[in-house]
Amino acid sequence: MNVARRRLVAPSRLLLGLLPLALAACGDDPILAAEVDELCGQVGPYRLLPLEPDERLTMSAIRRVDDRYFVTVGREPRLPDGPLGALPRYGDTTTYSVGLCGEDPRVVAHDLGSAPFPMDRWPGALFGCVHGEERDDLVLVDPSGDQEATLVLEDGCTLYRSHVDEGMVRAEAGEATLRLVYHPYLDGDVPGYAAPIELFAAVTDYTVLGDEVLGVGEDGVLRAVSLVDLSTTVEASGVVAFAATADHLLWKSTGADASILLRDRQSGTEAVIEHGDISPWGFSLDAEFGRIHRPSTQEGEVLVDLEGGGLHYFTDNDSPVRELADGRWLVRNGSAGPFRLRDLDTEVEVILSEREGFARTDDDHLDLVEGVQGYLDTRDVGPLWRLGYDGSPEVLRAKRVTALHVVLDDGRRVTPVDVDDAWLGTLVVVDPATLEEERIDAPVFNYTSTQAAEAALDPQVIAYQVVDGDRTGLYLLRLAE
User: Fold this and answer.
1) Quick one: residue 188, left, alpha or beta (phi over 0 = left, psi -120 to 50 = alpha)?
2) Contacts of 215 (CB under 8 A, 6+ apart)
């Protein structure tokens, strides 16, 4: 049980009772309303790493590896917005390493896009991604910082990569097709990949399944290549698009009747299950269901029961979200709702809520940030509603949170509010029982789940960046339970 805790509400109390905090962070101390526990020998926020006023946390900026934190920051101004939208990207970055209470700080790398990471194949080694204009290289990072990062694999951090048991499958983009190559791991303890083995010279669509890769060539032939012995098998001809698992194959043919076929890959049983056009997203499969994505929002989707063989149609911009424990399906209209519950056998529906917004689904409920459209702008806030699948009344859990707020183990929510055009705002924690917003700190930089500490000291420890003159830095705070 933590007994050193305090609710901090006034600057005078801070100055009288938190001398260690004043020594740890230069400049004016933060005024806290949130109740906090002791961390690193002091009650209150602990500055883990001082930063320059123009330094900002990158995406996935913080990672704990053993007894060290690795932190990657970039310098303002940001690069132009990329495919992820209005989220910070930087071309000039520095990666720091510090102990769990900020001891022994050191610079370990430059130009990484995020915090370095370990890989199971090479215990003790640390890797990073260097993102360039033409390629995204995988590099080996020296945790001590004594040596420059060394190249492991050119373009080894491309978005078009898949890690498999014995190596990496990587796609090289052409004008209209992709070249697929396989890089087996090198033997021995030194991190590295063997020379690439070409799996497909040109494919229009592909998927990686453990020890095999399936791809459709420009000739419309769907082939499977084994990563065990590199043997090739023709799966189907005249294929427009496909989706596959180890057990099932779903594809559309080039025939005049626009047939959509389903095959049980274990038994070889095959049947035409539907006809018609599909969207550019094509198909998707999991262990129990397949999905046929139609080009028109009015046509919705077709849900395929892989075991029973039944088809279930969703029209008028409806789409199935997930199957519930009682067999019903959660259904969303459009990208933000409203949401309904549907019994597929009887087609009976009940309205879960007329509210629209960004949703997080759980086994027995849905949490909805009303009026917020996903990741379009992570500064947007809205009221948070708990919607139970059992028909219980809607419950307000917070008056305002962002889509990317952090959920603590006890159900409290940590979220930025009042974030301005410079991505600076106030960080608060909200108790769903009282709806009270307890101030943590300000001005805090663009606090999102991508900038929270992973595997921190315990689940109640949060990390955030203050941008405020001499106080600028990365802070840790243990919230009282």
Assistant:
1) left
2) 180, 199, 200, 203, 205, 206, 207, 222, 223, 225
Of 101, 93, 84, 24, which is closest to residue 54 (Cα–Cα)? 93
Taking only the tens place, the pLDDT of each residue in 204-218 is 999 999 899 999 999
Pairing of strands 357-361, 406-407: unpaired
- Sign for the pseudo-dihedral over CA of 80, 82, 86, 88: negative
Asked if residues 295 and 278 have their Cβ atoms less than 8 Å apart, the reply is: yes
Average pLDDT over residues 382-405: 95
Check: CB of residue 43 under 8 Å from CB of residue 18. yes
Cα separations in angstroms, 314 against 227, 251, 326, 337, 342: 38, 19, 20, 14, 10
Give the neighbor-by-neighbor strand order of the sheet with 395-402.
357-361, 365-370, 381-388, 395-402
Q: What tokens appear for 302 in the block? A: 């077709």
Rg of the chain, C-alpha, whole Å: 26
Give the SS3 label for residue 413: strand
**CA nearest 408: which of 417, 398, 418?**
398
Helix ranges (DSSP H) in 383-431: none
Q: Are 71 and 61 in contact (CB under 8 A)?
A: yes
Convert the pLDDT of each residue in 300-315 to its tens digit: 789 999 987 789 998 8
Contacts of 250 (CB under 8 A, 6+ apart): 242, 243, 244, 260, 261, 262, 263, 283, 285, 290, 292, 304
Q: What is the pLDDT of residue 82?
A: 55
Which runs of E-coded beta strand occur in 132-269?
136-141, 150-153, 161-164, 167-173, 178-184, 197-209, 212-217, 222-226, 232-236, 239-244, 248-253, 259-264
- The predicted model gives 176-181 an average pLDDT of 92
CA distance 162 to 231: 19
* The residue to which tokens 């949060």 are assigned: 462
Q: How far apart are alpha carbons 70 and 61 in whole angstroms?
A: 8
Q: How far apart are CA 198 and CA 128, in angstroms?
A: 25
Peptide bond preceding 123 in cis form (omega within 30 of 0): no
Continuous segment of H or E residues that includes residue 19: helix 19-24
Q: Mind listing the pLDDT tens digit for each residue in 327-338?
A: 999 999 988 889
pLDDT digits 0-9 by tens, 245-300: 999 999 999 988 889 999 999 999 999 999 988 988 889 999 899 999 988 766 77
